[in-house]
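Hi C.,

You asked whether I'd gotten around to modeling the 328-residue construct. I have! Everything is below, sequence then structure, no commentary in between.
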Amino acid sequence: MNVTGVNETDECPSYTCPERSVSTAVYVLLYVCAAAVVLLTVCGNLLIIISVCHFKQLHTPTNMLILSLAVSDCLVGLLVMPLALMWMIESCWILSIVFCLCYISISSFLTTTSIYNVALIAVDRYFALSNPFLYAETVSLRSMCTVVLSVWFVLLFYNLALQYFCGLFSGLCPGQGFTALDEVWSLLDLLLTFVFPFAVIMILYTLVFIIAKRHATAIRDLKIQTQTETLKSTADSMKSERKAAKVLGILVSVFLGCLFPYFIYTVLGNVIEIEMGSFQKVLLLVYLNSSINPVIYALFYPWFRRCVRLTLTLQIFNTDSSLMNVLS
Protein backbone atom coordinates (compact mmCIF):
# COMPACT_ATOMS: atom_id res chain seq x y z
CA MET A 1 0.00 0.00 0.00
CA ASN A 2 1.57 3.24 -1.07
CA VAL A 3 0.93 6.64 0.46
CA THR A 4 -0.01 8.82 -2.47
CA GLY A 5 -1.33 12.30 -2.76
CA VAL A 6 -4.14 13.51 -4.92
CA ASN A 7 -2.12 15.46 -7.46
CA GLU A 8 0.76 14.48 -9.67
CA THR A 9 3.30 17.11 -10.72
CA ASP A 10 6.39 16.96 -12.87
CA GLU A 11 8.22 19.84 -11.25
CA CYS A 12 8.36 21.20 -7.75
CA PRO A 13 6.64 24.57 -7.60
CA SER A 14 7.47 27.17 -5.02
CA TYR A 15 5.33 26.43 -2.00
CA THR A 16 4.71 28.24 1.27
CA CYS A 17 2.79 26.77 4.17
CA PRO A 18 -0.41 28.65 4.98
CA GLU A 19 -0.47 30.67 8.18
CA ARG A 20 -1.87 28.90 11.20
CA SER A 21 -5.57 29.50 11.76
CA VAL A 22 -5.50 28.30 15.38
CA SER A 23 -4.20 29.89 18.54
CA THR A 24 -0.81 29.05 19.98
CA ALA A 25 -2.45 27.17 22.88
CA VAL A 26 -4.43 24.93 20.51
CA TYR A 27 -1.34 24.48 18.37
CA VAL A 28 0.70 23.31 21.37
CA LEU A 29 -2.18 21.06 22.52
CA LEU A 30 -2.27 19.38 19.11
CA TYR A 31 1.42 18.55 19.36
CA VAL A 32 1.01 17.28 22.94
CA CYS A 33 -1.84 14.99 21.81
CA ALA A 34 0.26 13.83 18.84
CA ALA A 35 3.17 13.02 21.17
CA ALA A 36 0.81 11.08 23.46
CA VAL A 37 -0.51 8.99 20.54
CA VAL A 38 3.02 8.24 19.35
CA LEU A 39 4.09 7.29 22.90
CA LEU A 40 1.06 5.01 23.34
CA THR A 41 1.75 3.30 20.02
CA VAL A 42 5.46 2.75 20.62
CA CYS A 43 5.24 1.72 24.28
CA GLY A 44 2.15 -0.47 23.83
CA ASN A 45 3.68 -2.45 21.00
CA LEU A 46 7.06 -2.55 22.73
CA LEU A 47 5.40 -4.26 25.70
CA ILE A 48 3.99 -6.91 23.33
CA ILE A 49 7.44 -7.41 21.78
CA ILE A 50 9.12 -7.75 25.21
CA SER A 51 6.43 -10.14 26.44
CA VAL A 52 6.58 -12.53 23.49
CA CYS A 53 10.37 -12.46 23.28
CA HIS A 54 11.09 -12.81 27.00
CA PHE A 55 8.62 -15.41 28.27
CA LYS A 56 9.33 -18.87 26.87
CA GLN A 57 5.73 -19.94 27.42
CA LEU A 58 4.73 -17.48 24.70
CA HIS A 59 7.15 -18.88 22.13
CA THR A 60 4.47 -20.36 19.87
CA PRO A 61 3.99 -20.11 16.09
CA THR A 62 0.86 -17.96 16.45
CA ASN A 63 2.61 -15.57 18.83
CA MET A 64 5.41 -15.13 16.29
CA LEU A 65 2.79 -13.62 13.99
CA ILE A 66 1.57 -11.38 16.81
CA LEU A 67 5.21 -10.41 17.41
CA SER A 68 5.68 -9.57 13.73
CA LEU A 69 2.54 -7.42 13.75
CA ALA A 70 3.70 -5.66 16.93
CA VAL A 71 7.12 -4.93 15.38
CA SER A 72 5.55 -3.35 12.29
CA ASP A 73 3.11 -1.37 14.48
CA CYS A 74 5.92 -0.20 16.76
CA LEU A 75 7.96 0.98 13.76
CA VAL A 76 4.88 2.80 12.42
CA GLY A 77 4.64 4.66 15.73
CA LEU A 78 8.36 5.37 15.84
CA LEU A 79 9.12 6.29 12.20
CA VAL A 80 5.86 7.13 10.44
CA MET A 81 3.35 8.65 12.85
CA PRO A 82 5.53 11.60 14.00
CA LEU A 83 6.01 12.76 10.39
CA ALA A 84 2.37 12.13 9.47
CA LEU A 85 1.00 13.99 12.50
CA MET A 86 3.37 16.90 11.89
CA TRP A 87 2.20 17.05 8.26
CA MET A 88 -1.44 17.10 9.37
CA ILE A 89 -0.99 19.71 12.11
CA GLU A 90 1.02 22.04 9.89
CA SER A 91 -1.36 21.46 6.91
CA CYS A 92 1.66 21.06 4.64
CA TRP A 93 4.97 19.23 4.37
CA ILE A 94 7.55 21.38 6.18
CA LEU A 95 10.50 18.99 6.09
CA SER A 96 13.02 18.30 3.34
CA ILE A 97 12.57 16.04 0.32
CA VAL A 98 14.75 13.41 2.04
CA PHE A 99 12.23 13.07 4.87
CA CYS A 100 9.45 13.01 2.29
CA LEU A 101 11.10 10.07 0.52
CA CYS A 102 11.71 8.25 3.79
CA TYR A 103 8.13 8.82 4.91
CA ILE A 104 6.64 7.42 1.69
CA SER A 105 8.98 4.43 1.55
CA ILE A 106 8.74 3.41 5.20
CA SER A 107 5.00 4.03 5.46
CA SER A 108 4.26 1.96 2.36
CA PHE A 109 6.45 -0.91 3.49
CA LEU A 110 5.24 -1.09 7.11
CA THR A 111 1.55 -0.72 6.28
CA THR A 112 1.74 -3.44 3.64
CA THR A 113 3.62 -5.66 6.09
CA SER A 114 0.89 -5.16 8.70
CA ILE A 115 -1.77 -6.19 6.18
CA TYR A 116 0.06 -9.40 5.31
CA ASN A 117 0.73 -10.14 8.99
CA VAL A 118 -3.02 -10.06 9.60
CA ALA A 119 -3.57 -12.29 6.55
CA LEU A 120 -1.01 -14.76 7.93
CA ILE A 121 -2.83 -14.76 11.28
CA ALA A 122 -6.03 -15.70 9.43
CA VAL A 123 -4.22 -18.55 7.62
CA ASP A 124 -2.67 -19.73 10.89
CA ARG A 125 -6.00 -19.78 12.77
CA TYR A 126 -7.79 -21.59 9.95
CA PHE A 127 -5.10 -24.25 9.72
CA ALA A 128 -4.95 -24.70 13.51
CA LEU A 129 -8.72 -25.11 13.83
CA SER A 130 -9.41 -27.11 10.68
CA ASN A 131 -6.61 -29.66 11.14
CA PRO A 132 -5.05 -29.31 14.62
CA PHE A 133 -3.05 -32.55 14.50
CA LEU A 134 -1.43 -31.75 11.15
CA TYR A 135 -0.83 -28.18 12.36
CA ALA A 136 0.99 -29.42 15.46
CA GLU A 137 3.18 -31.73 13.36
CA THR A 138 4.08 -29.35 10.52
CA VAL A 139 4.07 -25.82 11.97
CA SER A 140 7.04 -25.23 14.23
CA LEU A 141 8.51 -22.09 15.75
CA ARG A 142 11.38 -22.15 13.26
CA SER A 143 9.17 -22.63 10.21
CA MET A 144 6.88 -19.77 11.28
CA CYS A 145 9.89 -17.47 11.82
CA THR A 146 11.10 -18.39 8.34
CA VAL A 147 7.71 -17.54 6.83
CA VAL A 148 7.54 -14.21 8.67
CA LEU A 149 11.06 -13.14 7.64
CA SER A 150 10.39 -14.19 4.04
CA VAL A 151 7.24 -12.05 3.92
CA TRP A 152 9.13 -9.03 5.30
CA PHE A 153 11.90 -9.37 2.68
CA VAL A 154 9.49 -9.95 -0.23
CA LEU A 155 7.37 -6.93 0.71
CA LEU A 156 10.47 -4.77 1.16
CA PHE A 157 11.62 -5.72 -2.34
CA TYR A 158 8.13 -5.14 -3.76
CA ASN A 159 7.79 -1.65 -2.28
CA LEU A 160 11.27 -0.58 -3.36
CA ALA A 161 10.66 -1.91 -6.88
CA LEU A 162 7.25 -0.24 -7.11
CA GLN A 163 8.58 3.14 -6.07
CA TYR A 164 11.63 2.85 -8.32
CA PHE A 165 9.73 1.88 -11.49
CA CYS A 166 6.97 4.41 -10.83
CA GLY A 167 9.43 7.23 -10.41
CA LEU A 168 8.46 7.97 -6.82
CA PHE A 169 12.12 8.54 -5.98
CA SER A 170 12.15 11.67 -8.13
CA GLY A 171 10.01 14.72 -8.68
CA LEU A 172 8.70 14.90 -5.12
CA CYS A 173 8.07 18.32 -3.63
CA PRO A 174 8.76 19.28 -0.02
CA GLY A 175 5.64 21.46 -0.16
CA GLN A 176 3.10 19.19 -1.75
CA GLY A 177 5.07 16.09 -1.05
CA PHE A 178 3.42 13.25 -2.91
CA THR A 179 2.66 11.99 -6.38
CA ALA A 180 0.10 9.48 -7.54
CA LEU A 181 0.74 6.12 -9.17
CA ASP A 182 -0.45 5.77 -12.73
CA GLU A 183 -3.66 3.79 -13.32
CA VAL A 184 -1.98 0.45 -14.12
CA TRP A 185 0.38 0.48 -11.15
CA SER A 186 -2.35 1.83 -8.88
CA LEU A 187 -4.64 -1.07 -9.82
CA LEU A 188 -1.81 -3.59 -9.38
CA ASP A 189 -0.89 -2.15 -6.00
CA LEU A 190 -4.54 -2.19 -4.91
CA LEU A 191 -4.91 -5.85 -5.92
CA LEU A 192 -1.68 -7.00 -4.25
CA THR A 193 -1.80 -4.94 -1.06
CA PHE A 194 -5.51 -4.96 -0.29
CA VAL A 195 -7.85 -7.02 -2.47
CA PHE A 196 -5.83 -10.26 -2.29
CA PRO A 197 -5.03 -10.21 1.47
CA PHE A 198 -8.52 -8.86 2.24
CA ALA A 199 -10.09 -11.77 0.33
CA VAL A 200 -7.85 -14.25 2.17
CA ILE A 201 -8.79 -12.74 5.53
CA MET A 202 -12.53 -12.67 4.85
CA ILE A 203 -12.77 -16.15 3.37
CA LEU A 204 -10.63 -17.84 6.02
CA TYR A 205 -12.22 -16.08 8.97
CA THR A 206 -15.66 -17.00 7.68
CA LEU A 207 -14.48 -20.61 7.66
CA VAL A 208 -12.87 -20.14 11.09
CA PHE A 209 -16.13 -19.02 12.67
CA ILE A 210 -18.00 -21.88 11.01
CA ILE A 211 -15.47 -24.33 12.50
CA ALA A 212 -15.60 -22.53 15.87
CA LYS A 213 -19.38 -22.90 15.93
CA ARG A 214 -18.99 -26.60 15.14
CA HIS A 215 -16.48 -26.90 17.97
CA ALA A 216 -18.87 -25.18 20.37
CA THR A 217 -21.52 -27.78 19.53
CA ALA A 218 -19.00 -30.61 19.98
CA ILE A 219 -17.90 -29.23 23.36
CA ARG A 220 -21.49 -29.06 24.54
CA ASP A 221 -22.10 -32.66 23.42
CA LEU A 222 -18.95 -33.87 25.17
CA LYS A 223 -20.04 -32.29 28.43
CA ILE A 224 -23.45 -33.88 28.17
CA GLN A 225 -22.19 -37.37 27.30
CA THR A 226 -19.21 -37.76 29.60
CA GLN A 227 -16.87 -36.04 32.02
CA THR A 228 -13.80 -38.25 31.59
CA GLU A 229 -10.43 -36.57 31.93
CA THR A 230 -9.34 -37.19 28.31
CA LEU A 231 -12.50 -35.79 26.75
CA LYS A 232 -12.49 -32.88 29.20
CA SER A 233 -8.95 -32.05 28.08
CA THR A 234 -10.02 -32.21 24.43
CA ALA A 235 -12.99 -29.94 25.13
CA ASP A 236 -10.76 -27.43 26.96
CA SER A 237 -8.31 -27.42 24.04
CA MET A 238 -11.10 -26.80 21.52
CA LYS A 239 -12.53 -24.05 23.72
CA SER A 240 -9.11 -22.38 23.97
CA GLU A 241 -8.63 -22.44 20.20
CA ARG A 242 -12.13 -21.05 19.71
CA LYS A 243 -11.45 -18.19 22.15
CA ALA A 244 -8.16 -17.37 20.39
CA ALA A 245 -9.96 -17.26 17.05
CA LYS A 246 -12.61 -14.95 18.51
CA VAL A 247 -10.07 -12.48 19.92
CA LEU A 248 -8.02 -12.47 16.73
CA GLY A 249 -11.27 -12.01 14.82
CA ILE A 250 -11.86 -8.78 16.78
CA LEU A 251 -8.33 -7.65 15.96
CA VAL A 252 -8.86 -8.40 12.25
CA SER A 253 -12.25 -6.64 12.20
CA VAL A 254 -10.79 -3.47 13.74
CA PHE A 255 -7.86 -3.66 11.34
CA LEU A 256 -10.09 -3.89 8.27
CA GLY A 257 -12.33 -1.12 9.60
CA CYS A 258 -9.32 1.19 9.85
CA LEU A 259 -7.94 0.32 6.41
CA PHE A 260 -11.11 0.06 4.34
CA PRO A 261 -11.80 3.85 4.14
CA TYR A 262 -8.26 4.44 2.88
CA PHE A 263 -8.64 2.02 0.00
CA ILE A 264 -12.03 3.50 -0.89
CA TYR A 265 -10.29 6.86 -1.13
CA THR A 266 -7.49 5.27 -3.16
CA VAL A 267 -10.00 3.97 -5.73
CA LEU A 268 -11.93 7.26 -5.80
CA GLY A 269 -8.67 9.20 -6.17
CA ASN A 270 -8.28 7.75 -9.67
CA VAL A 271 -11.75 9.00 -10.64
CA ILE A 272 -12.43 12.25 -8.78
CA GLU A 273 -10.30 14.90 -7.12
CA ILE A 274 -10.03 14.45 -3.36
CA GLU A 275 -9.12 17.18 -0.90
CA MET A 276 -5.81 16.64 0.87
CA GLY A 277 -7.42 17.31 4.26
CA SER A 278 -9.87 14.43 3.80
CA PHE A 279 -7.10 12.16 2.58
CA GLN A 280 -5.00 12.97 5.66
CA LYS A 281 -7.83 12.03 8.03
CA VAL A 282 -8.33 8.66 6.33
CA LEU A 283 -4.57 8.05 6.37
CA LEU A 284 -4.46 8.88 10.08
CA LEU A 285 -7.07 6.18 10.71
CA VAL A 286 -4.72 3.64 9.10
CA TYR A 287 -1.89 4.65 11.42
CA LEU A 288 -4.10 4.73 14.52
CA ASN A 289 -4.73 1.01 14.06
CA SER A 290 -1.16 0.51 15.30
CA SER A 291 -2.20 2.26 18.54
CA ILE A 292 -5.41 0.24 18.92
CA ASN A 293 -3.88 -3.24 18.70
CA PRO A 294 -2.13 -3.16 22.13
CA VAL A 295 -5.43 -1.99 23.68
CA ILE A 296 -7.17 -5.04 22.17
CA TYR A 297 -4.51 -7.35 23.65
CA ALA A 298 -4.85 -5.66 27.07
CA LEU A 299 -8.65 -6.06 27.03
CA PHE A 300 -8.87 -9.67 25.82
CA TYR A 301 -5.56 -11.39 26.67
CA PRO A 302 -4.99 -12.03 30.42
CA TRP A 303 -1.46 -13.23 29.64
CA PHE A 304 -0.62 -9.82 28.18
CA ARG A 305 -1.82 -8.03 31.32
CA ARG A 306 0.31 -10.35 33.46
CA CYS A 307 3.34 -9.75 31.24
CA VAL A 308 2.86 -5.98 31.41
CA ARG A 309 2.68 -6.13 35.21
CA LEU A 310 5.85 -8.23 35.39
CA THR A 311 7.64 -5.93 32.96
CA LEU A 312 6.65 -2.64 34.60
CA THR A 313 7.59 -3.97 38.06
CA LEU A 314 10.98 -5.04 36.63
CA GLN A 315 10.44 -8.67 37.65
CA ILE A 316 11.62 -9.76 34.20
CA PHE A 317 15.16 -9.03 35.40
CA ASN A 318 14.89 -11.72 38.08
CA THR A 319 16.70 -15.02 37.59
CA ASP A 320 14.68 -17.49 35.50
CA SER A 321 11.90 -14.92 35.01
CA SER A 322 11.57 -16.11 31.41
CA LEU A 323 10.27 -19.45 32.78
CA MET A 324 7.41 -17.85 34.71
CA ASN A 325 3.91 -19.15 34.07
CA VAL A 326 1.99 -16.29 32.46
CA LEU A 327 -0.82 -18.28 30.83
CA SER A 328 -2.69 -19.54 33.89
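If it helps when you're writing up: The two ends are 39 Å apart (CA to CA).

Thanks,
B.
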